[in-house]
Design brief:
By secondary structure, the chain is mainly alpha-helical. It has 7 helices and no strands.
Length: 177
């Protein structure tokens, strides 16, 4: 999933949880924070690109193969955050980071390591696995050639992006009065 899909999904999920579970008002600030938390797992990308010296994406971006893209990593962070933050904030953090990882298993060709660190299992799981990087297609060209041409990735991406944008516009409109 692209950043816009992750942000849209996070805004929609945070809005639903705030309204339906916590019965609280939703503010533009809380939705902005939700969008940032929703892309948090992808902030490992600059680190991975630096470690692999792959700044120009001459080779495949392998950030889904690092521990920073595992449920275990975010479960530990959520436990640590619970020591300092409210249950409300911790539930949203845990939900939005796991949602990001689930979307990466939905809309990427390689998925993530759901079982890691169990017995060193580094198997990546994807709902729609496909080998598309064999012809050396990387970066934006990959998205144009493959990602946006399959209904199971393009349609959810578009719906999540538009849904998140509409929720944000509605929330901003209500806040500005």
């Amino acid at each position: 999933m692209t950043l816009t899909g992750h942000i849209g999904a996070s805004v929609a999920a945070a809005y639903a949880v705030e309204r339906l579970v916590f019965k609280s008002e939703v503010t533009p600030i809380s939705l902005g924070l939700a969008g940032l938390i929703g892309i948090l797992p992808d902030l490992d990308t600059p680190l991975i690109l630096a470690l692999t010296r792959n700044w120009r994406l001459r080779a495949r971006n392998t950030h889904h193969q690092f521990f920073t893209h595992t449920p275990f990593f975010y479960f530990l962070i959520t436990l640590v955050l619970r020591l300092f933050m409210s249950t409300h904030a911790v539930v949203l953090f845990g939900l939005l980071t796991i949602l990001h990882l689930a979307l990466d298993s939905w809309a990427t060709d390689d998925g993530i390591m759901w079982k890691w660190p169990k017995a060193g299992d580094r198997t990546q799981y994807s709902l729609f696995p496909r080998v598309v990087h064999t012809d050396d297609v990387r970066g934006w060209e990959y998205y144009v050639r493959y990602y946006f041409r399959t209904w199971h990735t393009a349609l959810p991406e578009l719906l999540l992006m538009c849904g998140g944008l509409l929720i944000m516009i509605q929330t901003l409109g209500s806040a500005l009065g």
